[in-house]
Structure formats: structure tokens, C-alpha cells
Amino acid sequence: MIKDNSNPPLVSSSLHACADRAINHHLNPSSTPGPPDDGLGLFTVRKGLDAETLLVNATEDLASVQALASHLAFEIDGIPRSVALGICRMVETIQLLVNEALNEHCAGIEK
Q1: pLDDT tens digit string along 3-44?
Q2: Average pLDDT in the 90-106 region?
Q3: In angstroms, rounded to a whole number, what is the distance separating the alpha carbons of residues 96 and 103?
Q4: Where are the chain's structural domains?
Q5: Calpha distance 53→47 (Å, rounded)
Q6: Which of 40, 86, 87, 101 could form a disulfide with 69 if both were Cys (CB 3.0 to 4.6 A apart)?
Q7: Angle at 40 between CA 36 and CA 44, to 5 degrees
Q8: What's the rounded Cα separation, in Å, for the pair 84 and 66?
Q9: Mean pLDDT for the chain?
């Protein structure tokens, strides 16, 4: 009996093209075309935003990542828990730096 296969057959020309790109990426990094610098990346930051807005949003995003990593750390055990706690501590450090930059920026505005 023949089983149905949900995977489509692989086209060897596309495999060769992918392999060539992967090899060139690792062996000839200067010949690998990079992404176009057209400002239309997957995520962009709107032009004209002031530093305070950027720092406040970064602080809120870091707090969200911190909450996610903390929650994860207490749901798992062993080495993965240590990794999650390491992420928590790195995020806390980055959050302190961003908060300090925000404080310095706001202090500069008040003068």
C-alpha cells in the first residue's frame, strides 16, 4: 500500500540554488548580497520620534520581556531554568541602562 505524502517533491535546481547561497554566505561573505537599505525592513522606527519617546517604549518593552522570562524561569527546571534566569538578569541590566539614559535625557531637558 502506498502512503500519501504531504511533503511536495523537492526540485533539485532550487536545492542547488539554496546550497550555493549558503556556501557563498559562509565562504565569501563579501559576495553575499545584504538586505537592501531601503528603510522598508520588517520592523522600522518612525522617523522624527524624540529620544524620550524611544526610551520610554524601550523601557516598556524590556519590562514585558522581563515578565515573560521570569514567568518562564519558574515554570521549568534544570539548565533551561538557568538560561531563562540568565536572560532575566541581562534584561534587568539593559533596563537599568535604558532607565539611566532616560533619566539623563529628562534631566537635560529640565536644565
Answers
A1: 666 655 656 677 677 777 877 776 776 655 555 566 666 788
A2: 91
A3: 10
A4: 51-110
A5: 12
A6: 87
A7: 120
A8: 10
A9: 81
φ and ψ at residue 37, rounded to 5 degrees:
-95, 65
Please tell me the distance from the alpha carbon of residue 91 to that of residue 12, in angstroms, as a whole number: 44
Per-residue pLDDT tens digits for 48-57: 999 889 999 9
Residue type at 49 in one-letter notation? L
Mean pLDDT of 81-88: 92
CA angle 73–98–105, rounded 5-degree value: 160
Signed CA dihedral, 37, 38, 40, 44: sign only = positive
H, E, C per residue of the chain: CCCCCCCCCCCHHHHHHHHHHHHHHHHCHHHCCCCCCCCCCCCCCCCCCCHHHHHHHHHHHHHHHHHHHHHHHCCCCCHHHHHHHHHHHHHHHHHHHHHHHHHHHHHHHHC
